[in-house]
Design brief:
single chain; 769 residues; alpha+beta; Immunoglobulin-like; 5 domains; 10-stranded mixed β-sheet; 7-stranded mixed β-sheet; 42 strands; 28% strand; globular
């Protein structure tokens, strides 16, 4: 899997497109020595697009051109020239083409297929090679591509960013990008290598080879003319078509998965800072005294408008790719459920206020500033500012628990406990977090610092106490130290670094995380894993054998590891979200539903553990996840026919011979042999075999006969019955014998009847079993 670059964002207002109407001249027209193959369908790669666009200037656009524009806008790869115009016939400039190539490359890396070719990232930065692109909003894209030789200038220092991009140049950009992503170098062997010359007007052009390679996959197509328009500018619509076809080819080749729709962040108020911060509570007395207070600022507000500020616990805020949602566990008319915070807002617009976790305030000169602080340790809060339209002190949410009012959030603030006092611990302390870089241990009540001058003990025998024989080195202590362990009561702290503290580590396994199922569909189970300790690795397992292990009591037997991920790097996200693919088609055929699920479903149990420094927690389970069956509706067919035994006269089908019909999937004989007929025809003879009469017919898997297999083995007990033509036998050695199954007795496992029309006239040959 590649190191994924930031998901492709929408191109700026000046980007991309092409001509709209389906009747507009096609891409890269030409005849040449061979016609390009048909253009690939973009339907599959655009499956997540909604075919709705905001543009008023697309006129009579229809068909693939309109589909490509809608698709790429929805995927966040292109945008209009304004919010309502697309400028479809305007030529793409060289700098816009560079930005487009970057967006495609980033989108492909963000959606590369598991188990496929590892795509190479385009570096996020590149050298400032050209002198004439300074000030361009697209300069970063130009630099990124120039750094890996995907893009070239007109000279070593001149790029000519606003000049039109030609069709030949765009083909070369696409070709170099594809070669770089697949091989890691623009000089590698192109995955689209070809020796065919598709167009005549590009002879001698530096872009000819690239045009032929891209045309070989149907990405560039002709209209029967001899010209490719190699030197003609490419329009925005034409570029959109090319890009959509590139993605379609990549999907068909297994390089990428279907890209999701682009997600637009839903915050409308800008709060700063947005980064996370952690401070130790070191003085619990007056406000803002050496306790890690933090000030936030919100600009661009409307004077005279009242805004609410609420401190929200971090676990009640979810940030999914920039889309913020809030906990609504009570279902109280779609309002956020805020747990009271111990952190307080203590200063607003420079004035000290009565400490509270919720205030109402008006901006001064369009700005609000506020300072938060806390005397409570081990608490993480996020400031949320919003307009309370109905004056009920609540943040209104939609059905997806996303705010319906203008809002914004600041960076999270974690308050750690004060420094541990001198002396022995009164009680054992649960370890909340560990920072081995700063030699810091945070427990429920205190913060400890340790160094090589201290004494270390580890309760290796799990007796609950540290003994003299259990002393370890600093390295041995750190190897066992992790969140979820305990500092035992034998710990003696000496705040002065020159004095030796004594640490007694009760080496317990981390606590189990909590698994919550958010949604279940026929193809996936969406979960959130919370109570994840800092620095932990979360592993998620699934068990679909619910007939024997409905509650996870046999864990890990029967469970399959589906994902392993480091703890969430975004402290503004409540837990870690996972989407677990499940097999929805014919679920019940593959196993029995458990007691917790009804008919037409299959029961899955999900489990999660967390690991810190090699210590694995107990699992937490989410049971009785009832995945509905997907009705499989594809009618099966006969895919092949072959003679497997030729006994008497070689090449003549007669009594004692055996031939086999291969089905496209496992089948069931629904009515029995008596009404199964196989009709066979060579150049001058048509004969028929009756199962249960002149032949025995058995559904078989090629080894052991069962009631559901993918082939019908026909053993002739008599010569086939002559029906018409010349009765001289069926000669498959000297000619071609075709078969037709005259029977509707066979269904697949989902009950779909054999497609006789699609199974007619299969050639029977000698291939062995």
């Amino acid at each position: 899997m590649s190191q994924r670059a930031t998901r492709a964002k929408k191109l700026g207002a000046t980007l991309l497109v092409s001509t709209v109407a389906a009747s507009l001249s096609p891409l890269f027209a030409g005849m040449a020595s061979a016609a390009p193959p048909p253009a690939p369908s973009i339907a599959a790669v655009c499956a997540n697009a909604d075919n709705v666009h905001p543009f008023t200037d697309l006129g009579s656009a229809s068909g693939e051109a309109l589909q490509a524009i809608n698709c790429l806008v929805d995927l966040g790869i292109v945008n209009g020239t304004t919010p309502t115009t697309f400028s479809p016939t305007v030529s793409l400039t060289r700098q816009q083409g560079a930005a487009l190539i970057v967006r495609i490359a980033d989108a492909k890396n963000a959606n590369d297929a598991p188990g496929g070719v590892t795509l190479t990232d385009v570096p996020l930065t590149g050298p400032d090679q050209f002198t004439d692109d300074e000030g361009s909003t697209l300069e970063d894209s130009i630099n990124r591509l120039a750094g890996v030789d995907i893009i070239l200038g007109k000279t070593a220092t001149i790029f000519d960013p606003t000049a039109p991009l030609t069709r030949g140049q765009f083909a070369s950009l696409i070709d170099r990008m594809e070669t770089y992503l697949v091989t890691g170098s623009t000089t590698g062997t192109s995955p689209w290598a070809t020796t065919t010359d598709f167009f005549n007007d590009d002879t001698g052009s530096v872009h000819e080879a690239a045009i032929n390679r891209v045309a070989s996959r149907g990405i560039l197509v002709g209209d029967g003319n001899v010209t490719s328009g190699v030197n003609d500018p490419i329009s925005r619509t034409q570029a959109a078509l090319v890009v959509a076809r590139v993605l379609a080819v990549n999907l068909a080749d297994g390089l990428i998965t279907v890209p999701p729709r682009a997600v637009t962040p839903n915050q409308t108020l800008a709060v700063s800072p947005t980064t996370a911060a952690t401070n130790t509570v070191s003085d619990p007395d007056p406000p803002n005294t050496n306790r890690g207070a933090r000030t936030f600022t919100v600009n661009g507000l409307t004077n005279g408008t009242t805004f609410d500020i609420q401190l929200v616990l971090c676990e009640e805020v979810t940030n999914t790719n920039g889309v913020i949602s809030f906990a609504d566990v009570t279902g109280n008319a779609n309002e956020a459920d805020f747990t009271a915070s111990n952190a307080m807002i203590e200063v607003v617009n420079g004035a000290v206020v009565v400490p509270s976790d919720h205030v109402e305030v008006a901006p001064v000169n369009g700005t609000i500033s506020f300072t938060i602080d806390s005397e409570t340790q081990n608490e993480c809060v996020i400031p949320v500012i919003f307009i309370d339209g109905d004056n009920d002190d609540a943040l209104e949410l939609n059905a997806n628990n996303q705010p319906t009012q203008a809002f914004g959030i600041g960076g999270s603030k974690t308050f750690n406990p004060e420094a541990a006092p001198a002396g022995a611990l009164v009680t054992d302390q649960n370890i909340f977090s560990v920072n081995k870089d700063t030699n810091q241990i945070v427990t429920d009540d205190f913060t400890f610092l340790f160094d090589a001058n201290d004494l270390f003990f580890v309760d290796a025998d799990n007796s609950g106490t540290c003994e003299a024989g259990e002393q370890v080195t600093l390295a041995g202590f750190e190897a066992q130290l992790s969140s979820g362990d305990q500092l035992g009561g034998q710990t003696v702290n000496q705040p002065t670094p020159e004095l030796s503290s004594t640490f007694c580590l009760l080496d317990l396994s981390p606590s189990a995380p909590t698994v919550t199922v958010d949604d279940v569909t026929a193809t996936a189970i969406e979960i959130t894993v919370t109570d994840v300790l800092p620095g932990a690795t979360v592993q998620v397992f699934i068990d679909d054998d619910s007939t024997t292990d409905d509650d996870g009591s046999l864990f890990p037997a029967g469970f399959t590891l589906v994902v392993s991920a480091a703890s969430d790097e975004d402290p503004n996200t409540a837990g870690i979200q996972f989407t677990i693919p499940v097999t929805g088609a014919n679920n019940s055929a593959g196993g029995q539903p458990a007691s917790g699920c009804g008919a037409g479903t299959r029961d899955f149990t999900v489990a999660a553990t967390q690991t810190i420094d090699g210590e694995v927690s107990d699992p937490d389970f989410a049971i009785d996840n009832c995945v509905p069956d997907i009705a499989e509706t594809t009618a099966p067919t006969i895919t092949d026919a072959r003679v497997t035994t030729d006994t008497v006269v070689l090449g003549i089908l007669e009594s004692g011979d055996v031939f086999t019909l291969l089905f496209s999937e496992d089948m069931i004989d629904t009515l029995g042999d008596g009404t199964t007929f196989v009709r066979l025809t060579d150049a001058n003879t048509t004969s028929q075999v009756t199962c249960g009469g002149g032949a025995t017919c058995v559904l078989d898997d090629g080894a052991t006969p069962t009631v559901a297999d993918d082939r019908l083995v026909v053993t002739l007990t008599a010569n086939p019955t002559f029906i018409s033509g010349v009765d001289d036998g069926l000669d498959f050695a000297g000619g071609t014998v075709t078969i037709t199954l005259v029977s509707n007795n066979f269904d697949d496992q989902a009950g779909n009847q054999l497609n006789l029309a699609g199974s007619a006239d299969k050639v029977i040959d000698v291939e062995g079993p």
